[in-house]
Amino acid sequence: MLKSPPERELVPAGINRRSLFRPIAAFAGAAAALRAAPAAAAPPMVGTDVDPSAILYQLLWRTTYHPTAADQAEAALRGYSNYIEWQMSPELIDDSACQLRLASFTTLLFTPAEMYTLQPPDSQALPQRPSILVALRELTESTILRSIYSKCQLKERMVEFWNDHFNIDILDQDQVFLKPLQDRDSIRPLVFSTFENLLVANAKSPAMLHYLDNIASTKVSPNENFARELLELHTVTPESGYTQQDVKEVARCFTGWGHWSEEPSNGVNVGTFRFNHTIHDTGAKTVLGTQIPAGGGIEDGMAVLHMLATHPSTANNICSKLCRWFLGEGTHPSVVAAASSAYMSSGGNIKSVLRVILRPEHIYDAPSRYKRPFHYFASAMRATNAAITSVTTARAYLDLMGQPLFAWTPPDGYPDTLSHWGRLLQPRWQFAIYLASVANNYAGSFAGAVINDLEFFTGCTTAQACVDRINTALFMGELGVSQQQALAGVMTSFNRNMRREALAMAMASDEFQWY
Amino acid sequence: MNDATQYACDEYRALTRRQFVAGTAAAAGALAATTWLPRVSLAKSFRSSQRDILINVFLRGGADGLSVCVPFGDPAYYTSRPKLAIARPDSTSPTKCTALDGFFGMPQAMLPLLPIYQAGKLLYVHATGVHDGSRSHFKQQRWMELGKMNDLKLNTGWLGRHIANTPAATEGAPIRAISIGDSIPRSMLGSPGSVATTPFPENFGLPGGDSAAIRENALRNMYSGSDQVLSATAISTFDTISLLQGINFAGYVPAGGAVYAADTFAHGMRAAAALAKAQIGVEAIALDLFGWDTHFDQSPATVNGQMYKVMSVLALAMAAFFKDMTTGPAPTFTVMVSSEFGRRVVENDSIGTDHGHAGMMMLMGNSVLGGRVVTTWPGLAAPNLYEGIDLAITTDYRDIVAEVLARRMGNTNLAPIFPDYTPTFKGVVS
């Protein structure tokens, strides 16, 4: 049962937060000035003048896929900083209800060796075993379910972030059954750890070593793909000034990094990381000006990873991306610098970085962000408390919207910009109409999920009450007056179908595309 | 994986994400199709134009030019690829290629295009590409599509700049460029007005019912004050819906008995033909075909081999499109096919190829001066290779694109299209 949120006055009445904060806010001060009370020209509220309790819900927009009443209650109970700390320790949160939904996804618990028992889709082998495509399906569908139903919303947001940063195309050869292992072992447990831990875990991930061809890299013919993307994308970026020679040298360092193949003698090791010293180049190397002496084994690659993880250019890269992820494309350089400073002084501790990025004054100044398709999809489900009936069907809409999960081919990960995603609205409108069951003359939902609209609109006996209810659940009460009127205008008569129509249009609205 | 599963790795390796989810998405799409599309006949033609419609096909992943257009006349091809090389036309091998001329051959997977080549309407450009040595997929795609290298701030593509600098072929056309996919390719960025993107043009609408008008009204209202990009997209969406509404995609009957296969790329080409014939003012249509990044077990010559299959998809769809668009009245067109790089001359230990440098391009259309392979062949012997390992570029890809734009697309000023480059035409189109 939806409860109305606690009484609040986040933004002075009449000002629509969304309409104010379209990217790109050139100066934080200017944006803050717009937020001043309408009657007086109050000074801009920058720096530490922001009252965290007044912008608790703004924080929630950034740290969840949609702030439900339950999220709001938790945040109000704990307060701003403690809420963040609570979310950054997901291992302490009881998420068993969500876990129950994943109980039938057996491949989520497979060891690498068990993954290798899965068969190709057209296999005639006997006895018949599940197909490798099951692993793909279960990873994708569990990710969808977690984004909607997990209490660890900040963790899920970070999982999405790191899966883009350490992108792997799941449809590229063995990644179909190796990518789920990377997600489970190299991403999820480490999202709030240190960047170096994430970097090492992903450099040792068989999925990554396959995807970037390092398994084919030997001392006789080193393959540069992994080395190149490690430098270019995962860590320091070209702005650091590394050379083609550095790429070659890094490639030499990582010769031998691969995984155990499936000869019978390898037994339970199959699919796990293997350092193969017989193909490792043990010569001396020079990387970014640092000498790596001859005679080294796995230490060569580990030294490179440490060097890169602790490099200021890496701090700048990671913090820039995290700032954009949480605060938007026009984040002021001083914020990135503050986050980078926290990175460097904490040994790349992600929690330390997030504590800086999520500071009240940064959240306060952050313009609205356009939702990527996965975010939009999850937010619609959460805002309406929709019940998934078929994750497979629901997943088809992600494809139509342009983000089919884990299927971005190049290693730079799904883009995180308005200019990339802001061109394809029609599938979102279509999804909204289907989800609200107002397609096909109200014959039912085809979205793979159902909204209990009777529950959603409980107690709403007028059209305006319906608009208010939608405003509360989808927009935290911030929907602008003209938008409310547009929704009211949709209900040409007051009946069940018309209420669902208004809900569809609200989900399709401009406002709901932003967070 | 054991042998059986290695083979199967090829199976799903060739899956593009679009093909993979086509089943579920098509199911969703089928539900949408029942409701709203009024089944009207093709739209009346606008004021006609003498310009071609450009079908810009990008092969994503780095297509191996040495397999698409086989240099059987170069002995180093066979010494470099003992396992991967495709046999000469005069050999007894069952997988031999067919001579295009005395030096280059067509692999069997692409034979559907042979009649078009022999009729002089298909042309290859070989040893072509973008002069970037990174061998990085996304970097080279980026520079190639932007039309200018190493400019990280440039956010318009060569096609977008062309459209921006050229008057509309159809006056007042709201949609001049369409990407049949889920995002605008970089090459199209910078097009003025509306650029539509849709993976399923036949499904591009709002589920209707009695509320269609109310919905459109509400959405137009709600998006009118939105962010610039989004309100433009909203307007373009309605324009596109209106335009596409007049096209009976589902009922479209290709001319000449042309048959499009069931894969997503063929589906897109079929939609492109319907869009072209509907003459709604679209001047350029972009499509992607994934699956060319053949590092392992490339297998270009044997039926059901990884590269064989993707070449077959390309050739069959192009052949169907050609027949469809040249039997009976239809607008003139140029299909241009390119890829971000070709692949390594020597095969690797996995009987595949690594990222390379120069590759090939293809042009197909009414005005293509085809039946030839246009190239200054640098040769595959080591001293003639780029960095000693890759086919060298002897034709900058921009020479080809520029000529198509100038001679077939009504462009009169190439300067803004390719900043800091002056193209040299090679005589590929009339």
Query: What is the terminal separation of chain A in angstroms?
Result: 24 Å
Alpha-beta classification of chain A: mainly alpha
Strand content of chain B: 5-15%
Kindly report how far apart the N and C termini of chain B lie: 51 Å
Residue windows where pLDDT falls under 50 for at least 5 positions of chain A: 1-46
Radius of gyration of chain A: 25 Å
- Bin the helical content of chain B: 25-40%
Biggest pleated sheet of chain B: 9 strands, mixed
Number of separate helices of chain A: 27
List the quaternary state of the chains: heterodimer
Order of helices and strands of chain B: HHEHHEEHEHHEEHHHEHEEEEH
Helical content class of chain A: 40-55%
Task: Give me the Rg of chain B, rounded.
Answer: 22 Å
Mean pLDDT of chain A: 86
- Name the average pLDDT of chain B: 84
Tell the overall outline of chain B.
globular
Strand count, sense and barrel status of the largest sheet of chain A are: 2 strands, antiparallel
Number of strands of chain B: 11
Silhouette of chain A = globular
Short description, anyone?
With 515 residues, chain A is mainly alpha-helical.
What does this structure look like?
The complex is a heterodimer of chains A (515) and B (430). Chain A has 515 residues and is mainly α. Helices cover 50% and strands 3% of the residues of chain A. Chain A is built from 27 helices and six strands. In chain A, the strands form three sheets. In chain A, strands 1-2 form a two-stranded antiparallel sheet. In chain A, helix 13 crosses helix 14, helix 16 (312-327) packs across helix 17 and helix 17 runs antiparallel to helix 18 (350-357). Chain A is globular. Residues 1-46 of chain A have low confidence and may be disordered. In chain B, strands 1, 4, 5, 6, 7, 8, 9, 10 and 11 form a nine-stranded mixed beta sheet that branches. Chain B is globular. Chain B starts with a helix and ends in a 22-residue tail after the last helix. The model of chain B is unreliable at 1-48 (pLDDT under 50). The chains are: A mainly alpha (515), B alpha/beta (430). At the A-B interface, helix 13, helix 21, helix 22, helix 23 and helix 26 of A face helix 1, helix 2, helix 6, helix 8 and helix 9 of B.
